[in-house]
UniProtKB/TrEMBL annotation:
It comes from the Bacteria. PANTHER family: AMINOALKYLPHOSPHONATE N-ACETYLTRANSFERASE-RELATED, AMINOALKYLPHOSPHONATE N-ACETYLTRANSFERASE-RELATED-RELATED. GO terms for molecular function: acyltransferase activity, transferring groups other than amino-acyl groups. Signal peptide: none annotated. Residues 138-286 form the N-acetyltransferase domain. Keywords: Acyltransferase, Transferase. The keyword Acyltransferase applies. This is Acetyltransferase (GNAT) family protein. InterPro entries: Acyl_CoA_acyltransferase, Bact_Acetyltransf, GNAT_dom. It comes from Tropicimonas isoalkanivorans.
Length: 286
């Protein structure tokens, strides 16, 4: 087996393969649909390589412009092949099914690298026919440019609390991240009857029939009232009305797990989010 760069002509084959593992391939599938397999300037544009055995596709890896390595190698890869493939590249993060992320990290010689975030999170799915929407007077609306200042402040809190950013790094990163979410058009705000925003949610990967929930946040003053679960449920209710059939997410803690289980999500596996303390330059095979 060996890796080769993907071409635009490979797109249907890549998508067919990844859809066998949709639940742990949402980032790869969404980026492929948005940007193709050959990369680009956008942070989420992704260069894709195919692991083939006698022209049969056995695995897919992608490296985004922002430095996120996305892995779908269900049967692993030949020893040394991943490190050889990525020699000279820079990797900031590795995302994927938990065991695969661990193997990729070891294969790249990064077991000792300092990490900012190393989360092995429960992975959940939901058939939207089984969605439960909690009752309440709060309502959901799309976020807009007028919300930008508030959203940036919330994002700073989220990055420090959930992604382990330093306050200084969070202040630097939050504006660009919020601008990207606003541009993608899936960022939603839950607001109280008087119009006060009290929670946010978005889709961080999107296919016509499946969405992946991400960036869910409730400020301290509004926690413990069920706002996050209602925000997610109302967002999925809208998506269902537009033809979406399934939702995927991974939960950052016990409270998040309880919230998602309360609206119908079932645990189906594990998903790892590994972010290094600084971008890692990949050397050749040791």
């Amino acid at each position: 087996m060996q890796f080769r760069p993907a071409t635009t002509d490979d797109t249907p084959t890549i998508e067919t393969f990844l859809r066998r593992y949709t639940d742990t391939s949402m980032f790869l599938l969404s980026n492929l649909r948005a940007f193709g397999p050959c990369g680009g300037e956008a942070p989420h544009a992704t260069r894709v390589w195919l692991l083939e055995d006698a022209d049969r596709l056995q695995g897919v890896v992608g490296l985004s412009t922002a430095g996120s390595l996305l892995v779908q190698l269900p049967n692993g890869a030949p020893e040394g092949s991943l490190r050889t493939l990525l020699a000279g590249e820079t990797v900031k993060a590795i995302f994927g099914e938990t065991a695969q992320v661990g193997r990729a990290r070891a294969a790249l010689g990064l077991d000792a690298a300092r990490v900012q975030l190393d989360d092995d999170e429960p992975l959940y799915s939901l058939d939207l026919d089984h969605l439960f929407v909690p009752s309440g007077a709060t309502r959901l609306r799309p976020a807009g440019e007028g919300d930008r200042t508030r959203l940036i402040a919330w994002r700073e809190e989220y990055l420090v609390e959930t992604v382990r950013y330093s306050p200084e790094d969070a202040i630097e990163a939050a504006p660009e991240e919020i601008d990207g979410m606003l541009a993608r058009g899936t960022l939603m705000l839950l607001e109280q009857p008087d119009g006060t925003p009290c929670a946010m949610t978005s889709f961080n990967a999107l296919l016509p029939e499946t969405v992946q929930i991400g960036n869910v946040f409730t400020p301290d003053d509004f926690r413990g009232r069920g706002y996050a679960r209602r925000a997610v449920a109302l967002h999925l209710e809208r998506a269902r009305a537009e033809g979406v059939q399934r939702a995927i997410l991974f939960a950052s803690g016990a409270a998040a797990s309880r919230a998602y289980e309360a609206i119908g999500f079932d645990r189906i596996g594990r998903f790892a989010l590994l972010i290094f303390g600084q971008a890692q330059d990949i050397g050749g095979t040791a």
